[in-house]
Amino acid sequence: MSPDALPPDPFAGDPHDPALSLEGPEGGEQDGLSEAERDEVVADLADLAVYQALLEARGVRGIVVDCGDCGEQHFHEWSLLRASLQQLLEEGQMRPHEPAFDPDPTSYVTWEYCRGYADAVLSDS
């Protein structure tokens, strides 16, 4: 899924965008990713492809993340997470997106589960 397939920012170009106050006192562009951060995102994208290949056929729809900001779980389908990581790589930030509608928590696993599952499957090969 390309970043263009994501819903548009409803406040794009709006000088009264409430998110503008979150940019800090200078209100300028955010810095891009450091080389180490870019390397981490590229590695995450590669890992995500492996995890999806191994788990999607088993009924896993994506990854669940515990949000430190709101304290809730966020459910990310494979394609949405890939598009978000790709956008982070290209633009240095992710656009806000709509949460999954009525997700079935049993269809999502944590990143750590994916890593452990992949390690176990690939070590048997």
Automatic annotation (TrEMBL):
Q: Please indicate which superkingdom the organism of origin belongs to.
A: Bacteria
A Pfam family (short name) is DUF5319
InterPro entries, per this entry?
Answer: DUF5319 (IPR035165)
Write out the biased-composition intervals (Pro residues).
Answer: 1-10
Q: Where is this region: Disordered?
A: 1-36
Q: What is this protein called?
A: DUF5319 domain-containing protein
